[in-house]
Amino acid sequence: MAESDQHDVTRLLKAWSGGDSKALDELFPIVYTEVRKLARSYLRRERPDHTLQPTALVNEAYMRLVDQRHVDWQNRAHFFGIAAQVMRRVLVDHARMRQADKRGSGERPVVLDEALALVAERTPDVVALDDALRALAELDPRQAQIVELRFFGGLSIEEAAEVIGLSPATVKREWSAARAWLRRELERR
Amino acid sequence: MDAGRYQRIKAILLEALDRPSRARATFVREACGGDAELRAEVESLLAHEKNDNFLEPPVFDRRAADTYVGKTFGHYRVLERLQAGGMGVVYVARDIVIGRRAALKFLRPELVGDEESRTRFIREATAIAALSHPNICTLYGVEETPDGDLFMAMQYYDGQTLKQMLAGGPLPVAACVDIARQIGQGLAVAHDAGIVHRDVKPGNILLADGVVKLLDFGIAKLADAAALTMHGMRIGTQAYMSPEQAWGRPVDHRSDIWSLGVVVYEMLSGRPPYAETPRGIANDIAPRPPSIAASRNDVPPALEAVVVHALSIEPGGRYQSIRELVAALDAVGAQARPRARIAVAPFRQSARIGEPQLADALTEAAIDGLSIAGGLVVCRGATGGTELTGTVAVRSGQVRIVARVHETPSGHVAAEWTLEGPRTALPELVADLVRRVTTHLDVRLTTDEARQLEVRARAEPTAYWAHQLGRCCLREEKESGARAAISHFESAVLAGSDAMAAVTHAAIAETSVALLELRCDDADEWGRRARAELETAARIDNAAPEVIAASAAVALRLDGSPAVAESALRHVLTLRPSDARASVRLAECLAISAKPVEAGAVAKDAAQSGCCSPGQLLRAARVLYFAQQYPDALDVLDLVVQRMPDDPVARLDLAATCAKRRDVDRAVAECDRALDAHVGRALLAAAAGNAARARGDRARYDLCWRALRRFHQEEPVPACAFDLIETSFGNTGRPIEYLEGYDDNLGVARFLGFAMVAGSLTRYVSSVGLIAYLGLDPSLEPLAQASSLRRWLAAS
């Protein structure tokens, strides 16, 4: 990882934490690329029966992308907010591709996604959840974001509150409501 | 439903959730007023609100439910929990100063609870951290968290443990031997430092890219002490524990030998030899482990014997050092390996390039690289069977090698490769070719061999090339070639001082010894040189087969220690069973040590391998002559003169061998052919003079002297000829003492040995033809009389 990238990411992260929402658009592709790159390098070295460890993956992406000396825990929470989006994208893409593969479209999933299969299998139905989350985002974008941060990003209530700019109490209530809505939605599908 | 509607529903729902559950129904009814649809929505969502683990844990759990993850200790940032074992929990961490990954093992607090065990642990860990060996997991150090937890920071390896590998069943024999050797080499270094592992088991043996890394040195000792104090009993993995360990007796390095024996047994049979009955193991031990041969039929009996020896119940009955065990495995490995055979034909080059040595040196480089593979018999020249041929071209600095493996005489091309790269990539290209050929022939390189190949692949290109040019010069086995070779090797040493330099210094040492054999002047100078180069080579890499071989040459020729040389050569031959030079040397060693029968057998095998150079065949023939295996010696000499028809020394040897077989006509004819060469004339004259003097025939001796002087005026003769003619006069009288016992093998062998080690006499003296001409063998007398030598002498 070039030092200039690290500098960029750190700067963008601070800008985003400071309220510049455009910074997010620049950050997402950098983090997405880094996570995929790391995942590929893990996969080259590890045997197929090893699970890809998303925790280590994202932690390592963070170590590589962010200059630790210049960030506080709030910036860190923001980073993991992006990681949540990245993980959602990767998992959903993978699940969709697997479905397509089962239907015989001939499209083969890329290596990264094969390793993520194990993660995806633990999760009820990532594609259905993603669809439900999109529907929720139409009704209440904030709730959808909280779910994304909590479920795909592993953020605590406090961290999610920091990323979204709400009080932890509000996030907690919204999280409960969103869970109820999603549970019902998934049962209906 | 639209967003506005959802916000209304959500507002009521959230308010309801803030209330105790029994108050919710009433609240919702009131809040929704008469809007039945709204109420139905809220109630349905309320019904789906459960305090369960829906959407939890998240797919990506940063905290991983662990107190250490995400924290920083010293300069280590803990990334993730890897695994938990008996001794503690292992995490992946990143060294935030250096940026590399590391594995942190947090020791279970009860293992290091008291100050004494902490101190002892830190002291041992420091000793282990000081060990540097490819088969020992690198320990960065021991550190402490602010809470007082102790952890070891170690190198992080991608790989799997032997335990994981064995879950798939037993391993192939070659893999078992290779892994066992590596474990043994790691343990040997630890034992040298006084450290006993105490817990050698598959779970503590990691394999990263085929390289063994031993983990957890000495932790078992802590666990032992802790368990003893806590429960008065031992913990650990019973199945791998030595009997003395299980009995609670004092434990030394031989306990690790037992455990390694168990590990090898398990690799071969799929399970350890003794059941994991706690405590009972010691009582259950049978005098011998259950036979491995019962579970599979491809285990060489010699390998099973090694395992059984390691598994002797009394430590005194086992191998006494891990190196002994490794040597035994080496010997088994050398026998067990199937051999493929390849003949390397001279590479050709495209006519355009004005660099005549390129193809030659490339051929040498290919032979040099392929010879690393102990499982491969490599022959020089188009000798039939499976052959490697190739062409090389250079265009604007780019080298292009086209190599193919084909079968002769059928001409079937089994494989063809094109390798291209810049001139500087030649070492890598050759290594690549070697890998392709060995893979094609299904010859597996051991870890050590792969390392030797890697040393060449990464060698400084100029040095590498100079080394191969030097090897080219040695092919002729002439003094001038040897001198030219040394000067190439010297350039190589100047150009690069990497690991390849050990091989080059060893080559200088060997060549110096060869020069010492070829000449009788400058002997002291070459001797000093050989010793100095060997010393340098050994400092760089004393395990390289070339270095061990050079040490044998020095031991034999300079130190006069055939026993030392013999043991070194046997070691070389376990690593490279088809090394013709080492085989021939070993035969000479055995001859000098008065073991003519074994010497003859080794010489015959070497000659029949088809891999000997003419010079090596000549030496093998002499050993056979002294072993009185004349028909075999004759067969070998015929091979020599096919390849070097005009070599006077070979002709003289032939003459003597034919005379021994009472084939006087051919003996005389061979002498005549020897006389065609200046050297042959000089040596024959010297030998005849020597013989005459020994018989007291002064006139004939003077005649011979005059002839020799005349030959010398025409063209300088080897100085040893003058030595030879004088030898019987007591100037250096000892050869005669040895020759007095000529009719028994012992005396001949001693003379040969003396001739080889006594600096003033050279290989010409050890030439059987000359010994025959010393006239001490009555059966050779007609030969001396009938030879046209008389004409030459008369003409003087």
If you had to describe this structure to a student in words, what would you say it looks like?
- The complex is a heterodimer of chains A (189) and B (796).
- Chain A is an all-alpha fold.
- Helix content of chain A is 78%, strand content 0%.
- Chain A is built from nine helices and no strands.
- Chain A has helices spanning 3-17, 22-45, 54-65, 73-102, 111-122, 126-139, 141-152, 157-164, 168-188.
- By secondary structure, chain B is of the alpha+beta class.
- A six-stranded antiparallel beta sheet of chain B has the order 1-2-3-4-6-5, covered by helices on one side. In chain B, strands 10, 11, 12, 13, 14 and 15 form a six-stranded mixed beta sheet that branches.
- Chain B folds into five domains: 3-47, no CATH class; 72-336, Orthogonal Bundle (Transferase(Phosphotransferase), domain 1); 342-458, Rossmann fold, CATH 3.40.50.10070; 460-546; 646-795, no CATH class.
- In chain B, 56% of the residues lie in helices and 12% in strands.
- Chain B is built from 36 helices and 15 strands.
- Mean pLDDT of chain B is 79; it is low at 226-236, 277-282 and 728-783.
- In chain B, a hairpin with a 4-residue loop joins strand 14 and strand 15.
Shape-level CATH architecture of the largest domain in chain B: Orthogonal Bundle
Shape of chain B: elongated
Query: Rounded to an integer, what's the Rg of chain A over CA atoms?
Result: 17 Å
Helix content of chain B: 55-70%
User: Number of folding domains of chain A?
Assistant: 2
What structural class should be given to the helix and strand makeup of chain B?
alpha+beta
Poorly predicted regions of chain B: 226-236, 277-282, 728-783
**Relative strand content of chain A:** under 5%
Regions of chain A with pLDDT < 50 over 5+ consecutive residues? Answer: 45-51, 105-118
Report the helical percentage of chain A. over 70%
How far do the termini of chain B sit from each other? Answer: 128 Å
Largest sheet data of chain B: 6 strands, antiparallel
Q: Give the CATH topology of the largest domain in chain B.
A: Transferase(Phosphotransferase), domain 1
Query: Mean pLDDT across all residues of chain B, rounded?
Result: 79
Number of helices of chain A: 9
Oligomer classification: heterodimer
What fraction of the residues of chain B are assigned to beta strands by DSSP?
Answer: 5-15%
